[in-house]
Amino acid sequence: MKAAIIGGTGYGSVELIRLIHKHPHLEVGTVVSNSQAGKNFSETYPHLSGIIDQPLEKFDADSISNKNEIVFLATPSGVSSNLVPQLLDKGIKCVDLSGDFRLRSADEYEKWYKHSPASETYLNQAIYGLSEIYKEKISNSTLIANPGCYPTASILALLPIINTKIADYESIVIDAKSGVSGAGRGLSLTSHFAEINENLKAYKLGEHQHIPEIEQILSDENGSPINISFTTHLVPMNRGIMCSVYVKLNDSFSTEEVHQIYNEFYKNKPFVRVRPQGNIPSTKEVQGSNYCDIGLHVDKRTNRLTIISVIDNLVKGAAGQAIQNVNIMNGWDERTGLTDIPLYP
Amino acid sequence: MKAAIIGGTGYGSVELIRLIHKHPHLEVGTVVSNSQAGKNFSETYPHLSGIIDQPLEKFDADSISNKNEIVFLATPSGVSSNLVPQLLDKGIKCVDLSGDFRLRSADEYEKWYKHSPASETYLNQAIYGLSEIYKEKISNSTLIANPGCYPTASILALLPIINTKIADYESIVIDAKSGVSGAGRGLSLTSHFAEINENLKAYKLGEHQHIPEIEQILSDENGSPINISFTTHLVPMNRGIMCSVYVKLNDSFSTEEVHQIYNEFYKNKPFVRVRPQGNIPSTKEVQGSNYCDIGLHVDKRTNRLTIISVIDNLVKGAAGQAIQNVNIMNGWDERTGLTDIPLYP
Amino acid sequence: MKAAIIGGTGYGSVELIRLIHKHPHLEVGTVVSNSQAGKNFSETYPHLSGIIDQPLEKFDADSISNKNEIVFLATPSGVSSNLVPQLLDKGIKCVDLSGDFRLRSADEYEKWYKHSPASETYLNQAIYGLSEIYKEKISNSTLIANPGCYPTASILALLPIINTKIADYESIVIDAKSGVSGAGRGLSLTSHFAEINENLKAYKLGEHQHIPEIEQILSDENGSPINISFTTHLVPMNRGIMCSVYVKLNDSFSTEEVHQIYNEFYKNKPFVRVRPQGNIPSTKEVQGSNYCDIGLHVDKRTNRLTIISVIDNLVKGAAGQAIQNVNIMNGWDERTGLTDIPLYP
Amino acid sequence: MKAAIIGGTGYGSVELIRLIHKHPHLEVGTVVSNSQAGKNFSETYPHLSGIIDQPLEKFDADSISNKNEIVFLATPSGVSSNLVPQLLDKGIKCVDLSGDFRLRSADEYEKWYKHSPASETYLNQAIYGLSEIYKEKISNSTLIANPGCYPTASILALLPIINTKIADYESIVIDAKSGVSGAGRGLSLTSHFAEINENLKAYKLGEHQHIPEIEQILSDENGSPINISFTTHLVPMNRGIMCSVYVKLNDSFSTEEVHQIYNEFYKNKPFVRVRPQGNIPSTKEVQGSNYCDIGLHVDKRTNRLTIISVIDNLVKGAAGQAIQNVNIMNGWDERTGLTDIPLYP
């Protein structure tokens, strides 16, 4: 099955290509980059020399739908809202890795993203591609809004205790940390080596566009609104997200009881690994893989639960989760092409 | 004035030497390392070649007190509790950079540090060397318990809103991140390059020995007990601590009002720089310097204040603060020898 | 086909496990670690949680040969010289990733490695596993001496101009740089994060044990002795080796002509990618993969050829090349299980 | 003495400000940045908050010469060739940190820099500011061409054996490695964090503009032309340059004899530290300081001398050396303001 990729020169695209290349049922089809059209892909990414040497193409919905069976959009905010309708109209399924179809509310999108929202028709059609809870909907969908990197780690950290009686949802604090590849390949002083190397930086305090995405899903699952405090930090490494999540427990639960709840919740979810007691995951332990690892600790002094969740932002936080969704859409085992061991060290 | 240093081969000691060397009134005296006695200091630290070439010596209270006028102890936990009494008895003043004299309660020390505590006599004599609030006591002291790295950043972040009516002290969450030099020069897998490079790791959840130190000072200043949730993380960089502190506000305060409170509180404290609105410090912006920089943000959605404080763990978090205390003990301007611009980038 | 791994807790072993896990014809069999026997492998390497959860075992030649069909030895120098004979006597084939069987001369081994050499009988039996030139011998071998990381990058850089008339072999200078994983998982100050991060260090000047290995193979291929100047450096990154090789050309060759020679030499070697003119590879462009990428430049001012070769030290420089050798020994396509795209960025 | 700085927002400027701030006889005067004029300097560099809060100004030769007594130009190539004449005409002395006045030959400048050269009058007036050999000329100069970063490390590595009979000057190979701050603060994909972190990259093979500078000085000192092979590499760290220099010895010299030559040559040069035998410097051992540390090894197998020289590219390779030159121009001790211990770790 040929897969087209739009937004061809970003890190999301190149990670999609890495994963498609090793997938038994997928093959790299058209790769679109309007800015670099005509260039060979391996000129932009020499690590692909001799492997993927095809030219980058301009966007053409006809050509894409004729030559491919699925489209991944790894474009900046405000782009796929225009492209997806053209593609869906040609009858080709889309997985959008941007934020354009994640928020149900067009107003919220405009408020947080400062772009024009997608039209309601298509927003309504989009399925939020978090397979750990929406697997069935995903299997029947034509348009997937692939979850954001921070939301994936944050939501998976919290889901097992949402809509239970054990936690105080007004107390949720998410301290999120990301490697710099999450800021993309576009040049900026924030991603300039000498500025961020040997540095740790908090950014977008209270303004990150992933806040409404996390709240929407948590509120949906809870059946009533949840607001979170959410702060993002840049860490001097390439890959990896860690969310350190803090939440008050309503009664005195032990770490052991909380482990049981998490183990039960994720027992059939192949990519969520709940670590045993006393074992807290670090980001490198999922590097290059589709795993989300979770560690838990109950602090009896404060009756607060600390949840540490880690993902590779480019895999489970982007391209890997997109492949997982395509697996489900096609009725394949959701692990297909995603079973490799993390790259360590 | 000659200054002796005990614990000569750790990062705390070598940073003390860097700062003493540029101090107008201090000079490096005896350097003690029982394990490396006889070796030349520049063999252990070649960057000192041609600058500090003296031999390391064994501990000898007589010799130290004869040849020096002040002693810095940069030893692991459980060591200075034995050495300080011998030195004080010889009439020489001590600044202890370890945790041995920070907790007033011997029981608490034993519980968190798993070592035998110092004797009550000396615990009572020790002054907690956070000059931003205890300057006068420091000026009259003979034994300084130099604050820990995390406590320095955490306490300075919170002080202006302690013992006010504006915050809910049960809601305090401190998410602390440190560069790897904080783990010292002792070999361990946690500090092994390939393990922690390109990695982010949470550690000692709910068990960090700095928790009671932070609570002791905040409770003292508050006049009633404060408990905190405190989690530490290792970041793949050498120097720098960031504390991201989250606290619920009791009423609806604006970021501007909170800024006024902080600016007022720190107006005569030369090493605390409260950043203007919208300006959040990063760790590299204090690298190699004695500054503690603070950024503030009020999230109106959740009525929660986020405080970002950064220090260089080896300077304001250790050796620099020790020098600042010695300045105060000697009646010198507290900035003496500490006015250099941070090393950037 | 079950593969045993001896030396189970080093980086070589864990990389073998990553590659065996994705190989269609291989499966992880016995994993031996005398020091950690009884422990579960994922305790030592939590990234393997839920994937490889088997216990580490003590060395037992009988048990290994009964349960496995091939053995990889990823042990420190001086260990496999004792173990390999026991294993070969049981009729099981061995791939040794250490240096114990690489040097034909027992005296040279003793001189450079400072260990007792393997016995001549087994040294004579060993085939140097550089498949780009010894593929046929490898296919018939029972004992492979898997090439060292630096030798792989150095020899592949030079082979096309060895035994030609175009270069002055007395002029060869190899400036080699490696990521820190090459120093292994054993603790040492050299691999301590705060010491090597933000640092660049030359080490073992003129004394590296890979010198005689490089000279042996180059001299063999040349038909007469070649001596090299070889210096190694540690670079603050996890993976990757770059050899910058300098050699005088006898006549005035253009970069283009040199490219033709290299392209011709490597035209059927799937893992050597000779980059086009003006395109110089960097280490990350082969990260996690079995490629050796080569860039070439002729400096007309000095008539000197500069060759830049890069590998991932743990893949083509160790575990990947070992798998490539096993593929050849079994008559499989040498690329089997090794075709993944490098992890970038 | 007030010092003006032109090119105010680059890393060279900010390092000058750090060093001027701690210099007993210098004070930061006018800071010029045409692109950011009007902005406060600490907006661009928040680490200067509360220390250097003055506005950036547009270039105005009159104003600069009225308010300052010395000018540092830390501008890109092709800029100071225009500005310096205007400043010298006002009677103010200039230290140019760019390459515009380093090459005596206007033609060579144009060939390597691809900019129009400075006029001959001013080229003839410029003194190459390598104080270890041109101290007297510097003391009488009005225009200093401050040496480049790579040339400083390369020339200091080779000087003691130039114009002797012991080395073969046609055999010189310089393998140079630099931290990423050397590439400046201008945005480019090469300095983009995710591209160069965990990566090692060779660049500008045979084309680096520092080649003619190194050759000019070595040839001058030798009395006859010397050509070198020179290759540059980017290392994933902020600061530091290492030059690994390889040169054939004409006779059989021991490492000891070579040490004597170096020790003798540098005995009165306070910033060059020749390390004892067996002791090879690493870049972090000079971090933040004006030292150039040199290690030596004679490989008897090949009769080749390896010289390892390290500097901080922003200090001895730029701002520190500029201060050293100003010290000499003013008759101060050349060490003034430059005696701080390197920042380690």
Relevant terms:
Rossmann fold, Dihydrodipicolinate Reductase, domain 2, 6-stranded parallel beta sheet, 31% helix, globular
Distance between the termini of chain A: 33 Å
Tell me the count of domains of chain A.
2
CA-based gyration radius of chain A = 20 Å
User: What share of residues are in beta strands of chain A?
Assistant: 15-25%
- The CATH architecture of the largest domain in chain A comes to 2-Layer Sandwich
Largest sheet features of chain A: 7 strands, mixed
- Using the coordinates shown, work out and report the CATH topology of the largest domain in chain A: Dihydrodipicolinate Reductase, domain 2
Largest interface: A-B, 46 and 47 residues
Question: Would you kindly provide a written description of the structure presented here, covering whatever features stand out?
Answer:
The structure is a homotetramer of 345-residue chains. With 345 residues, chain A is α/β, with parallel strands linked by helices. Chain A folds into two domains: 2-125, 3-Layer(aba) Sandwich (Rossmann fold), CATH 3.40.50.720; 150-313, Dihydrodipicolinate Reductase, domain 2, CATH 3.30.360. Helices cover 31% and strands 22% of the residues of chain A. Chain A has helices at residues 11-21, 41-44, 61-67, 80-89, 106-113, 120-125, 131-139, 149-158, 193-196, 210-222, 255-265, 315-329, and strands at residues 2-6, 27-32, 70-73, 93-96, 127-128, 143-145, 167-179, 201-203, 229-235, 241-249, 272-274, 292-299, 304-311. In chain A, the strands form two sheets. A seven-stranded mixed β-sheet of chain A has the order 8-9-7-10-13-12-11. In chain A, strands 2-1-3-4-6-5 form a six-stranded parallel β-sheet, sandwiched between helices. The mean pLDDT of chain A is 97. Chains in contact: A-B, A-C, A-D, B-C, B-D, C-D. At the A-B interface, strand 7, strand 8, strand 9, strand 10 and strand 12 of A face strand 7, strand 8, strand 9, strand 10 and strand 12 of B.
